[in-house]
Amino acid sequence: MRKIVLFDGECHLCHKSVSFIIKRDPKRHFQFAAQQSEIGQQLLREAGAPTDVNHLILIEGARHFEKSTAALRICRHLKGWWKLCSFFLATRS
User: Where residue 36 sits, what CATH number does that domain have?
Assistant: First the structure.
């Protein structure tokens, strides 16, 4: 299943987040696109996600996740103890 991280291409923190993910994703689970790019906008529309956001969005297959849910789902695929963060997905209501 493809996993695409869409990030705000104008945000310095978002660029740092992408670098953080890349460094901890040796199996290359994720692909990346800026939300403002043509492909980013197309992916947002195809996933049924809002196209005017400025926060992290994760597309997994036909579903999309935003904000902390996206971050926690990303963590489950990263090397190291970051996988443990996905525990918080189960505790969210």
Answer: 3.40.30
User: Residue type at 90?
Assistant: A
This prediction has a pTM of: 0.85
What gap in Å lies between CA 13 and CA 11, rounded to an integer?
Answer: 5
Residue (of 73, 56, 62, 60) closest to 18 by Cα position: 56
* pLDDT tens, residue by residue, 27-60: 999 999 999 999 999 999 999 998 888 889 999 9
Give the structural domain span for 17.
3-91
Would you give the distance in Å from CA 50 to the centre of its chain? 14
Residue 44, pLDDT score: 93
- Structural domains counted in the chain: 1
Specify the amino acid at residue 51: T
